[in-house]
Amino acid sequence: MSTPSASPSTAPSAAPVGPRPPRPDRRHRRSLAALTVLATLAVGCSALGGAPEQDAGRSSVPAAPPAVAAAEAQAGAQAAPAVQAAQAAQAAQAAQAALAAMPAARPQAATGQELNGRVSAAEHEAVVRQALAAAQRWGLAGLPLRAPAPPAVKPELADGPGVKRAAGLPPVVYRVPTSDRVIFLTVDDGAEKDPRFAAMAAELGVPMTAFLSDYLARSDYGYFRALQAHGVGIDNHTLTHPDLRRLGPDALQREICGQQDRLQQETGARPRLFRPPYGEYTEAALRTAASCGVTAVPLWNEEAFPDHLEWRYADQKFHPGDIVLTHFRAPAADWKGTMPDMLRRVVDAATAQGFAVARLEDYL
């Protein structure tokens, strides 16, 4: 991040008294500031480690009597913590001042925590260390990349590549129109309620959207409310997961709008996004969804499993704005692993290709 250069002064300069030494450039001044901080910290550390013994042969001060020496030693021991605390505080203030004079660095990888403030080097190091420990604890290949700030204006969902739109109907979105190197993780149904998956997503700060079917989620909506408390979007996947192409108007109303009502009751928020089961829909289904508050219908480009990814594109790579489908599932013959295994695979693949996982609701 570049630092804005100071505007030139318009005030007249005073007459010079003598030749002025050249001012060091900004980079040199910052280097001097950094060296000053290091020197201050070194002094503090040496104070914490104790002063070196004085050469007895060069001392001209006579030794104190044993009783007096003991009293002085006790007084010095009592004062040492206060002196050390004062020196540590001075070193921290110097470090803060030096860092404030430098442009704030924006890290490329994080766990959703804000590291872009002007913080002390010690604080920055502690947060990075914590992020690395979390990534290692969950078996990631490296730190997940941090998504950019949500767009101030959401992308226009015009008819085109990745978006299908018809007048009066909510847009069907396969890929969000954005140049940001982000993908979106979406998890369907709600059958498996794995606490380790919830803990992993929360600790790593991975955003996602859950599309819930009531007949699978209803056994423990509390699990999904806990996910919602950590920023997970909760959206509509019908009451009983039917093929919408086979339903009449009344059944469509019950399945789609009934789940809108149910999720509002369970989570306190009425969904704006709706995903039709199997990715199949009709114009009547889209019209029904619009009538009860749905503004977009996200489908998907890739599907994630614990042991592999299925790609829509021949290049088998992510593209900006891709939507990834997966499911809340337990290990089975066609689901070879756990929910944490699936999340690890998605995050590692995204990171390796230079993508961050972003929140779908921030773009749609």
Automatic annotation (TrEMBL):
<keyword id="KW-0378">Hydrolase</keyword>
<feature type="domain" description="NodB homology">
    <location>
        <begin position="181"/>
        <end position="364"/>
    </location>
</feature>
<dbReference type="Pfam" id="PF01522">
    <property type="entry name" value="Polysacc_deac_1"/>
</dbReference>
<dbReference type="GO" id="GO:0005975">
    <property type="term" value="P:carbohydrate metabolic process"/>
</dbReference>
<dbReference type="InterPro" id="IPR011330">
    <property type="entry name" value="Glyco_hydro/deAcase_b/a-brl"/>
</dbReference>
<dbReference type="GO" id="GO:0016810">
    <property type="term" value="F:hydrolase activity, acting on carbon-nitrogen (but not peptide) bonds"/>
</dbReference>
<dbReference type="InterPro" id="IPR050248">
    <property type="entry name" value="Polysacc_deacetylase_ArnD"/>
</dbReference>
<protein>
    <submittedName>
        <fullName>Putative hydrolase</fullName>
    </submittedName>
</protein>
<feature type="region of interest" description="Disordered">
    <location>
        <begin position="1"/>
        <end position="31"/>
    </location>
</feature>
<dbReference type="InterPro" id="IPR002509">
    <property type="entry name" value="NODB_dom"/>
</dbReference>
<feature type="compositionally biased region" description="Low complexity">
    <location>
        <begin position="1"/>
        <end position="17"/>
    </location>
</feature>
